[in-house]
Amino acid sequence: MVSYSKQGNVLHLNYSEVPSSLRGQGLGEILMDTVLTQIQTEGYQVLPVCGFISNYITKHEKWHALVAG
């Protein structure tokens, strides 16, 4: 699950969570890749508020262009 708020064309990605019983299986990365792909397709930019999301984007250069500057 990813919670967000929208301000114009920017989605503030506030929180992400994988159920505790499923953690440690790489599902957080799959979740983020899926969410960011959809955001890119819809033409939004992001402001990562959640630490996990921020770290994920930092580690994956292909998503850097989505970050609102």
Helix content: 25-40%
Oligomer: single chain
Shape: globular
Q: Poorly predicted ranges (pLDDT <50, ≥5 residues)?
A: none
What structural class do helix, strand and pairing data support? Answer: alpha+beta
Radius of gyration: 12 Å
Strand order of the largest sheet: 1-2-3
- What is the number of helical segments per DSSP (H or I, 4+ residues)? 2
Our estimate of the beta-strand percent is 15-25%
How would you sum up this structure, described in words?
This protein is α+β, with helices and mostly antiparallel strands and 69 residues long. It contains two helices and three strands. A three-stranded mixed β-sheet has the order 1-2-3. The longest helix is centred in the middle third of the chain and has 16 residues, at 27-42. The termini are far apart.
